[in-house]
Design a protein that fits this description.
about 75% helix; 2 strands; Rhopdopsin 7-helix transmembrane proteins; globular; 14 helices; mainly alpha; two-stranded antiparallel ribbon
């Protein structure tokens, strides 16, 4: 049931993404207006604010207010009514409520659930590689959710509540956003490592039985964190806050600056093509392959075990003068094996739901000029990106359900920790 719900969510978002792609293609064909040039507005801030921005799975709106003041919307708007609604007063309130209230609320739920996961796994004991992997995955998911909330709250304070302190909040959100993507990519790599580990232990147990030890798992996970940090270091170090003149408020404020403009644009395009498109696709392919191999090997082992059991039963009953075909019925898979297959399939489905639509959105952003930040379809791009962020947040928060449903040790430790908290709360009330 849960797997079917996830599949329906994924298919629904894919339809929305394909609809946006088709709409943009039709608009590019129909429109005779040249896309408005924003280079003059963006040159003032010495940093790329084109559609190749560095927002966490969505547009960051960097310099949105300044850019709109010095540029005019293209005439002859050919957008469909659904897109035009998003630019109306009601549509903006709908987008802001969805992006700055609903998504952060689900992110907060993900933070609480991952704190619970970390507490339960540590309480149960980090005795094997699997428990260390789950703790690391929960940690990276929690940090991603924290930076996602921080990014949206900063933008809400400036764009939604019209707060403009000495520090420009939207620019601070721009600097914070790569940290969220850093931990999101770490979660992808840890998920792939967990799938490969489980697949190898099931497919070739004699070879990998003692390969994925506790020590090797810790070394691999630490290496993933270090390599990801080194990869993102140029992006993290290229931007900083500096005192700059804000033309809109006619005063000096702390705003974002970059040490190398060309490097910023190159890194932004590289991040979009590699981290947001290529990495999720490769990870999805590896996980789906691992699930197929695991399912095949477990079924093969179950059939072999059943044939051996049936042969032994026939020999025993033949010796007693009974028919050996009475014991030929039954399931080919044990309950434990079915639970393993189902849990891995659900984890794979959660991962695909959280990453596959994102690849389509980013591919459309690269393919069409009018679909992205500061374009004719900016509102549609923003809404679909926020919808994608919501699904990612839901997939992160749903991990606790998978652990609780298919991990007996987790379920027992969870209630042990929860009962201790209730007792402590009761003592304080008294």
């Amino acid at each position: 049931m849960f797997f079917g719900i996830l599949a329906n969510q994924c298919s629904g978002l894919l339809i929305v993404s394909l609809y946006s792609l088709t709409t943009v293609a039709m608009t590019v064909q129909w429109s005779t207006e040249e896309p408005h040039n924003m280079s003059n507005a963006l040159h003032v801030s010495e940093v790329s604010t084109s559609r190749y921005d560095l927002g966490p799975m969505s547009s960051t709106r960097l310099y949105q207010q300044e850019a709109r003041e010095v540029t005019k919307a293209p005439s002859g708007d050919t957008r469909v009514l659904e897109v035009q609604f998003l630019d109306t007063h009601r549509g903006k309130w709908f987008r802001y409520s969805f992006s700055y209230m609903l998504v952060p609320a689900v992110n907060l739920l993900g933070i609480l659930s991952n704190i619970s996961n970390i507490t339960v796994f540590i309480k149960a004991g980090l005795k094997d590689g699997a428990s260390v992997i789950f703790v690391s995955l929960s940690l990276s998911d929690m940090l991603y959710s924290c930076f996602s909330i921080m990014n949206r709250v900063l933008r809400l304070l400036e764009y939604g509540l019209n707060q403009h302190p000495q520090l420009k909040l939207s620019h601070l959100a721009f600097i914070v956003s790569p940290y969220g993507r850093l931990f999101f990519d770490i979660s992808i790599l840890i998920t792939v490592f967990a799938g490969v580990q489980k697949c190898a232990c099931v497919a070739i147990p004699l070879t990998f039985r003692h390969f994925f030890t506790f020590k090797k798992s810790v070394v691999t996970l630490v290496s993933i964190f270090i390599c990801a940090l080194v990869y993102y270091l140029p992006q993290l170090s290229n931007y900083y806050m500096a005192a700059r003149f804000d033309r809109r408020f006619n005063r000096t404020r702390l705003m974002v600056a970059t040490g190398n403009y060309r490097m910023a644009v190159t890194l932004s395009r590289l991040s979009k093509s590699v981290n947001r498109i290529s990495l999720p696709i490769v990870a999805e392919g590896i996980l789906i392959f691992c699930v197929c191999v695991m399912t095949y090997k477990l079924r093969q082992a179950a059939v072999t075990r059943k044939s051996m059991t049936s042969a032994l039963a026939q020999d025993e009953k033949a010796a007693d003068g009974k028919d050996g075909n009475d014991n030929a019925t039954g399931s080919n898979l044990s309950k434990k094996e079915l639970r393993v297959i189902r849990s891995v399939n659900i984890i794979c489905a959660v991962f695909v739901v959280g990453t596959a639509p994102r690849c389509i959105i980013e591919a459309c952003d690269l393919a069409f000029k009018d679909f992205g930040d500061f374009s004719a379809y900016e509102s549609l791009y923003s809404f679909i990106s926020s919808l994608q962020d919501l699904i990612i947040a839901l997939s992160i928060a749903a991990n606790i359900v998978v652990y609780y449903k298919f991990n007996t040790k987790y379920r027992e430790t969870f209630w042990e920790v929860f009962s201790c908290l209730l007792k402590e709360t009761g003592k304080h009330k008294k």
